[in-house]
Amino acid sequence: MGLLAGVRCGGAVGAGKLKPERLGDYLKVSVSAKEANDARADVLKKRGVDANNFHTATVFGMPRTPPPNEYLREKIGIAALNQIYDKRVPGALWHVRFFRRQRS
């Protein structure tokens, strides 16, 4: 009984250390969402617009479309797909949107 509990515990610890490979694992994000938002606010300020008068939405996006990703993942695997995206395709970007709510 004690041996079985030890094996279960060891298996749980080992499983926690195994990290499945995922698309995008190669990305190293050097700018936070707040930094991207602040940089875009500075652009508005240089154009004479007060960014404080707007709401913002900042989203991290990868310029990829799901169907080709899925096809390539099945054909060549995640590691090869990550290598292609890392070396040959522009990386992910922060998309910052400033907007005002509609007034009724």
Q: Would you mind describing this structure in some detail?
A:
The protein has 104 residues and is α+β, with helices and mostly antiparallel strands. The protein has one domain (21-99). It is 50% helix and 13% strand. The chain contains 4 helices and 2 strands. It has helices at residues 2-17, 33-46, 66-76, 78-88, and strands spanning 55-61, 93-99. A two-stranded antiparallel ribbon has the order 1-2.
State which percent range the strand residues make up.
Answer: 5-15%
**What class would the helix/strand composition place it in?**
alpha+beta
Instruction: Tell me the number of structural domains.
Output: 1
Overall 3D geometry? elongated
Main beta-sheet annotation: 2 strands, antiparallel
| N-to-C span | 69 Å
Structural features:
single chain, 104 residues, alpha+beta, two-stranded antiparallel ribbon, elongated
Give me a quick take on this structure.
The protein has helices spanning 2-17, 33-46, 66-76, 78-88; strands at residues 55-61, 93-99. With 104 residues, it is of the alpha+beta class.
Question: What's the topology here?
Answer:
Layout: H1 2-17, H2 33-46, E1 55-61, H3 66-76, H4 78-88, E2 93-99
Antiparallel strand pairs: 1-2
Helix pairs in contact: 3-4
